[in-house]
Description:
Elements: E1 6-7, E2 19-20, E3 41-46, E4 51-56, E5 65-68, H1 70-74, E6 83-86, H2 97-111, E7 126-131, E8 134-138
Parallel strand pairs: 4-6
Antiparallel strand pairs: 1-2, 3-4, 3-5, 7-8
Amino acid sequence: MGNGDTCSGGGGGGAGRGVRSAIVSPVRICSRTACKASAVFTLTYVYRDSTAVLGPLATYAEPHCYDLCAEHSERLTAPMGWELVRLPVGEEAEPSDDDLEALADAVREAAKPAPGGRQEPVGQGTEVGRRGHLRVLRSDSGSAPVE
Length: 147
């Protein structure tokens, strides 16, 4: 059967054995008829904007997107009256030290208390009632209940 691809599905086969299939492939191929090259780009049409968008290969195959090989993506033209947008394709870069420092600074900033604002009392008060998952608390200082 086919190229040796397997599909391990529920069926009556023995444990650990897969069903050979010439249709299912772990490598996505070009959507163009008779092209068996590996897909490297995904083409999506945005009908509302009359735009065809060609970008990096999508993580998952979608029913309304077309996977294209490098050759077919280079020769691609948009339909008359449509705009073709080619998204930049680059290697996934590791986060730089600047990115990590910016993230750490943002976390530190979010953890700071609000300037001039009073701290919300934590663990202070007495529960005087309950409505579902909400609790009615009375402040220890004797003020009215807060819901």
